[in-house]
Design a protein that fits this description.
CATH class: Mainly Beta
Helix content: 10-25%
Number of helices: 1
Strand order of the largest sheet: 1-3-7-5
Length: 131
């Protein structure tokens, strides 16, 4: 027995929707970093679950120096640093796929620190300084 063409198409769409909803969700959280009054350094703690990513936004001025350091069990957590609108701006300075970075900031505005895991769920401690 042949199924009508529309019924086959509908069944295919239903199967595709079910299959994609069964995949684990990759969560990304975004958090604005504010330094305590009179301080230039802050320590942030978090965790990565199910290949998720945590992003931190902070404002800085051109010429300031930013330093970022991350620690995690089995060194699973890494980060990228970049201006909000120019992901490739700091790549040549080593600000990608790293656990330690320090550099002079090329422009004023928001910077993103993207923290992710390279080996499963992990917790981390992220230290950020702007001078």
């Amino acid at each position: 027995m042949q199924f009508p063409r529309k019924l086959r198409a509908l069944a295919l769409v239903a199967i595709m929707l079910f299959a994609t909803s069964a995949l684990p969700m990759q969560a990304t959280s975004v958090r604005r970093v504010r330094f305590p009054r009179g301080r230039t350094t802050t320590v942030l703690r978090g965790s990565i679950v199910n290949d998720g990513m945590n992003q931190y936004l902070l404002s800085a001025r051109a010429g300031q120096t930013m330093s970022v350091h991350i620690t995690s069990p089995r060194k699973r957590a890494k980060f990228d640093v970049y201006p909000r609108d120019n992901r490739s701006a700091l790549v040549s300075s080593g600000a990608e796929d790293t656990t330690d970075w320090e550099g002079s900031l090329p422009e004023s505005g928001d910077y993103v620190i993207s923290v992710y895991s390279v080996g499963g769920n992990t917790s981390y401690t992220l230290e950020v300084a702007i001078r």
